[in-house]
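Record copied across here:
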Amino acid sequence: MSALISNNSGSEVQNAYVKISLKERFGYAIGDFSTNIIWTAITTFLTFFYTDVAGISAGIVGTMFLIVRFLDGAVDIGIGAMVDRTKSKHGKARPWIKWGAVPFSLSVMLLFTAPNLGPTGSIIYAALTYFISTLLYSAINIPYGALNSLMTQDPYERSLLNITRMVVAISGGVLITMTAMPMVNGFGGGKTGWLLTFVLIGLVSPLLYLITYKSTKERVKPVVVQKEIPFRVGIKALLRNKFWIIVVLFSILIFLSSGISGALNIYYAQYILHNPALVGVLSLAGLVPILVGMILSAPLIKKVGKRNAALLGAFVSLAGALLVLVDPSNFQILIMGTVLKTLGTAPAVATGAAMLADTVEYGEWKTGARTEGLIFSGSGLAPKIGSGLSGAIVGWALAMGGYIGGLESQSDSAIAAINVLFIYVPIILAALQIALMWIYTLDKKYPEIMSELQFLAKSKG
């Protein structure tokens, strides 16, 4: 490890090993409730909104998703670097949540607006508002994720923070899944119904972020620091952090799987099950089991560790995906398989941010550079790439199958495309998740790494 100047005494390191109060834990979590209301709406309804409300072809929607998300994913690294350079009496992460709350909410109002600009104008408007919205999402979500590693260095407390965060976040996802379409219809349906629904959401969202800003505290300071870590050095350190790369790739697969399933629910319900009203049940089967799984994940993680819990969950997801193969047209089997797939995702969701937080200390131990902002740009990069690829895959596959938005029935090739995406792709993605977690071994190394960092802090103090 590089021998850089230490600014912190051993006692300061120990003080960062704190338990987080229930009040602060929920204060932290409520920010993700706000984020997930919006994110779930985007992953569940935006493809349908573009194809069937705004009138944009599925192929163009898929291409737009991919281009915008990859551009924005590249920007995420820059945002992470700026978070690392932020100096404020309120910390390096919390101020970003305050600054980004209102702009992000306004961007979402514009995102679900479909002005009459003609075919080309509609595509340009959709791409521009989508890019702005994802950019502002990063400006909140990257520092929000980094805040986990700045509140405490206790690995179990980090897991509890993330579990609480995700339970509350998924509750927001369930809420928007259950209420979005009734709200749209209640406001008159069509373009007006979608706009008014997200104006209402946009008005509530900043208030929830304010609670997070007011109720959390940053305690962790670098053990080994430079006066300022140059961007080039930070990127080099990031690329040497093999466990960060594994966690990001694993997270991309999680978001890719959930993105494809979420986007396909409305199409599968309408054209395979021939009952659009079942989209709510399918969506709930893809969300509610995570809440149960998160509750079960806390004792499981404490007993077997984060990596083993995530690995076990990936096997459960694979079993659920294989179960659907038994009879994809049988609604009971379909729901059981979806519940298993979702339940298996819970340990990964519970441990994702905590595993990323652990890679902060690994990176500091490995390279001498502590870069929470760059590390947690991965937490923004993963959903961008995962959902961008999922949107592109769904859009392109529907286009290749000849899907035409707004029709009561679709061609056999379009139906085949929906079936392949919904049934077979999750099997492949679950198998890849198992492979990645198999080679993730940081849980075993972490106690030794922390011991060495604390020893170094004491010797320099």
